[in-house]
Amino acid sequence: MKLSRILSNQNGVSRRHANFLIALGRVAVNGVPCGDPAAEVDRFSSVKVDGEIVQNAEPGHYLMLHKPAGFLSATLDHTHTTVMELIAPELREDLHIAGRLDRASTGLLILTNDGRWSRQLTEPRIKIPKVYRVCTAYPISPNTSQRFAEGIWFEYEQLTTSPAQLDLLGPCEARVTIYEGRYHQVKRMFHAAGNRVTALHRERMGKIRLDDALAPGQYRPLTPEEIDLMQA
To answer: What is the DSSP string of the chain?
Structure first.
């Protein structure tokens, strides 16, 4: 919301008077004077006029979860156990999942109440790398890497996936980097290459890596440095 609108909504002043207060340097956002009436201010920022609080900053929650197999990436489901049941009850209400994993898959899952921040992880046009360790039912064919690099045709969506990188780790194991997040994308790509994924584990989203110290089912807050990685 624009700063001038916050003042007029919360402080009972006209938009014109709000702009006047801002121009005089009497309005501070997160303790710093702001002279731009059109500045976008979210609910995680404090706003004060002459030192008096107009808007308190709401706490932002940014969590890294080591998702175990068997948990659904959903905030609510009446049939399956969801990842929310791994999170402390007092944190669950406002959280959403930034980049889901299917129920059988494991690894890095990010949960937050900050929609603007999480869109940087999930917005398709940004194309951040998502890195997975994959095990397959059959030996990975020599031409799979080239096929992934060229993109795989998805009939249902009538499109070709963005170029992906495959690094072979063993006959039936690879590390795969994709830049999209389409439905069951990695599994469908291997299926198109004549193989089947038996295990999929997400290691990284953008520059945020799964903490090796987290056991399956454990989570921790992201550090300020990790949060800033998505704001750089």
So the answer is: -BHHHHHHHHS---HHHHHHHHHTT-EEETTEE---TT-B--TTS-EEETTEEEEPPPPP-EEEEEEPTT-BSSS--SSS-BGGGGS-HHHHTT-EEES---TT-EEEEEEES-HHHHHHHH-GGG---EEEEEEESSPPPTTHHHHHHH--EETTTTEEPPP-EEEEEETTEEEEEES---TTHHHHHHHHTT--EEEEEEEEETTEE--TTPPTT-EEEPPHHHHHHTT-
